[in-house]
Amino acid sequence: MTEPEKTFAYRCGVRKTFALIAGVSSLALGATSAHAAGTLAGTDIINIAKATYDGPDGPVEVDSNPVTIKVDELLDVTVVSSDPGDIATDPAATAQVTTYQVTNTGNGEEAFTLTADTAKGGDEFDTVFEQIVLDTNGNGVYDPGVDTIYTAGANDPVLKPDESVTVFILSTIPADAADGERAEIELSAVAVTGSGVPGTTFAGAGDGGGDAVVGSTGADDEDSGFFVIQAAKITLVKSATVVDPFGGDQPVPGSTITYQLVATITGTGSLSNLAIADDVPADTTYVAESITLEGAGLSDAADADAGAFTSNAIGVALGTVPGGQTRTVTFKVTIN
């Protein structure tokens, strides 16, 4: 700055006064919360310069004309899967849920159109889309009959800056999906005002009366959740050994038959409430207290252990058995 300029600045005392006049009621009430995208859309930024100088009667102030700039709406959104990992499911299962969080990362109130894609390429199978559901009660868990079914254009979620909504996609798993196969389920959210290349402007369409400008996300984002088939199957193999009264293995009256039932579970899933039952054959008599599970004796009574003998049949409750394991049950009868 030259000496004349310095003298002018000193004598005139040029300074600026800035004022932010809220264009929305929340700021007018004195709210001071910060927002991810900065100043709220519709806020008026008013700039007035002042010049002062020494007049004959003392200091004089002169205001410039005010320059007002209205903050435009920045259109931005993020979609993030809320599932901790692949969701285990079974073939032919219905109302299977993947969960997402949609967040308005722009600086104005905005509505978003939601779309599900259950036919993504690169996975092993496609689910059948059922519906998109909005988490009405905000607990993050799908509640049938409580949460609201989404209809595009009718109840698009309207979010304030930094506000989020939890969204569920419900799917049906095809019956022919095989153990270990995965399916990708994508949710996308697009700003209703518009989307496109960052910097694209929609004149006069912004929240608060300004323009709407597409932000870094393109006002369009998506993320995926995944299902994985964890199926299990059982094979049950029955065999018999005979011991006759003479130490041989002939099936004559008085011989004892030991039946062995081997359940083998395969697959990455589990079988719940698995039970084995077998009727005592005709022309034989059950040997009391002869039921075993994995070599350990079980009682005939329907009590705390897994075995029981009722109505001339044995039964063993195995509970939940994961894939890769076997369970062996035996019992004895004598030939009449």
TrEMBL record:
The keyword Signal applies. The lineage of its organism: Bacteria, Pseudomonadati, Pseudomonadota, Alphaproteobacteria, Sphingomonadales. Residues 1-36 form the signal peptide. It comes from Parasphingorhabdus halotolerans. It comes from the Bacteria. Keywords: Signal. This is DUF11 domain-containing protein. InterPro entries: DUF11_rpt (IPR047589).
